[in-house]
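Repro:
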Amino acid sequence: MDYMIGVDLGTTSTKSVLFDLKGRVLASSSKGYPLYRDEPDMAEEDPNEIFEALIDSLTDVVRAGKLKAGDQIRGVSFSSAMHSLIAFDKNWKALTRVITWADGRAFKYSEELKANGVGQEIYSKTGTPIHPMAPLSKLLWLKNERPDIYAQAAHYLGIKEYIFHRLFGANKVDISIASGTGLFNIFQLKWDKQALELTGLSLDQLPTPVDPYEIERGMVQEYAKVIGLPADTPFIYGAGDGPLSNLGVNAIQPGVAAVTIGTSGAIRVVTDKPKIDPKGRTFTYALDRDHWVVGGPVNNGGDVFRWARDNLFDAEKSTAALLGIESYDLLTEIASKVPAGADGLLFHPYLSGERAPIWDANARGSFFGLTHYHTRAHMVRAVLEGIIFNIYMVALALEEVVGELKSVQATGGFAHSPLWRQMLADIFEQSVTVPQSIESGALAATVVGQKALGLTDKIENIADMVGDAKTYEPNPENYDVYRELTPIFIRLSRQLETEYANIANFQREHVHVKTTEQ
């Protein structure tokens, strides 16, 4: 028997999954690590902790697979969170931790780029909206506010490139990850001259762009021995987690949108060439040279639901633990008792600023319409609906760029909740399909790996691996409520823009919070 391992390098954990070549899961292992928020707007990780999580998870699945004589793991292929940045000196000593997509300290430089028009020029070539998430803005922040680090930095990598450098001594980046940096010209498939001039970088400070099908062999013996794989096992670069999420739920046909809500979220559609939004609201990232993913990411997904659980329902969290049930299931059961629209209570979920569709790192969360008759049950339903209203705002922008959405494929942690799936169908007024595969990112990575190794001729063959799907139809009884509330939600997000900046600046000056999120 032949097998593949798919690795998903995520924001809060790394997961390794062992598949057979038909996409069936044999074993999986997930290892978590903290997200450090030592100061306002910071969101960093320790690259060594992520590397150790990778080694541990790979070791676990190799052992759990209990392969027999003659069985072979044909390759290991990767999905990875995008937009991360690590600076290294000339001897490859890390000068920073992993500055993640969620880090917002470069907000000032993003705002300057948007205000002077240079940002739109660069966006039109790179397809990455101007926002603190992007390495483009992070580099400007380092240059201006960490000049000692900037002066020493001889190399810059993201987290997946760091992993490959540790394992193989490589200095490469796949074009999918590169297309999310704000530094990569997606039409020329090379680092953009204007972006490099702006940041002051030279080509030798950046990794060499390669296709997602690029293969490395010759792993450092020390790591190969610990993992239990031959050192010549092929490791395939794969792609970014967003593009691979579309592939993993078989949402690669025109007009088929993939909605993913995990810690954060996104809605994306695959096209055959890059498409730029004249208003700068959507991204265009490569899956490979022939498949481009157009869409919008949101900062605030499952982490907002977790905030509501931990701060509004602490007693219920303890009760759920005593009963041996999932606390999120208990909260969605509570929310289901409240009618659609939460009796006029709206929640803007911008606890971590926001990317699409408003691209405002200063945005802050708020309840609107709160009255004496609203309860915590209303609040948790409003939180769930607010997350989806925000995704729907992105969908409206996306339709202006790629045309009408024909159907929705849902994945991510939220997709496990029947209430959330029904809310999504009702607010979008679209059929929502939930594919059976729950390891969609890792599965998609293995399909890219199979193509790289010549085990399949096209990535579209994933359709035979995704499995059965369940479809949720919208409930017409809820149309009028959501149609009336959606415009209010959208108008409020626009009207509060100035005050978002004012309250965010107040918080940066007066609020000092140090947290480590597990």
